[in-house]
Amino acid sequence: MQDVETILQNKILLASLIACFSAQGLKVIIELIRHRKINFRFFMSTGGMPSSHSALVGALATGVGLTKGWESAEFAIASLFAVIVMYDAAGVRQAAGKQARILNQLLDEFLHDAHHLNAEERLKELLGHTPFQVLVGLAWGIGISVLAFPVL
């Protein structure tokens, strides 16, 4: 039980999780503003504005920099990890989403009644992020980490 208490006192972990979950919450708010209805599926979805993956790794790298020092090996590792995650979010996963969109369109054309397929039979198209969504997520994560550290 003492290990759980120790984990919950980890400022870097807490700031990173706060950044990630609050970015997911922002997706719900942004969808509410855009479409004037609450859609809680965005709280658990991938893709969209802002990138919660970028927020998480941005807060992680910032937290490591604040605690271990900007010149530390730990900050270098966390920063490189963040770059890889953000590249994946904006590159590989966005490309997979585009491929899913094309495959769904092919299904629609090939099967005239493809729009009757349920959501589980169609490929998920919103997988990745635009570079702007990644940058906003990164900025959100850095901001959360900087603001949360004095409080945590």
Tell how many strands the DSSP assignment holds: 0
The largest β sheet comes out as: none
Helix content: 55-70%
**Which oligomeric form is depicted?**
single chain
Which regions contain 5 or more consecutive residues with pLDDT less than 50? none
Strand content: under 5%
Estimate the global geometry from the Cα principal axes. Answer: elongated
Q: What's the average pLDDT?
A: 83
H/E element sequence: HHHHH
Could you explain the architecture of this structure?
- Helix content is 69%, strand content 0%.
- It contains five helices and no strands.
- It has helices at 2-8, 11-35, 52-68, 73-110, 131-148.
- α2 packs antiparallel against α3 and α3 runs parallel beside α5.
- The protein is elongated, with a radius of gyration of 18 Å.
- The model has no long low-confidence stretch (mean pLDDT 83).
